[in-house]
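G.,

No rush on this.
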Amino acid sequence: MKNDFNEKLGIYIRLRRERFNLTQGDVAKTLGVDRSTYAHYEIGDRVMSANMLYKISQLLKFEVNAFYDYYELSGKEK
């Protein structure tokens, strides 16, 4: 389900992934999901569970709250 929130979350995790020079395949393998599933998270087409968001935040070394700060600064309300 694509919406502004999911799109912004996808952009945020893509930027974090790129910062660590990881491919979508690298991240997907570590998370135990198909690369296509992870790719859909990044483009905002798939809603991730809170558990998956936590796993991604641990792997890409960010606090989940940091994303919400990013989202609010982008001019969108939660």
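When you get to it, here's the other one too:
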Amino acid sequence: MRSNSLSFRLTVSAAGTAVVMLLAAVAAGTAEWGLLVCGTGVGLAIAAHKVAGIRAAAVSDCFSARASREHNDANVLCL
């Protein structure tokens, strides 16, 4: 079940704080989409899905990135 707010408990670093801020902006509609970068993108995509309104996709190539936006309406791409 997805959280309806960003009030879930996290221990975050400075980079983690930036991720939470980005997810909050996308979820609130302040930002149209977001881009997160880590080792594989999978962990960030899993974490991002805990926020209501976020449709994250872990992508590793141009085709997957384009298809995620066009066909799945992803609003956060995780590289």
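The helical segments are 14-28, 42-48, 62-72. DSSP finds three helices and three strands in the chain.

Enjoy the weekend,
O.
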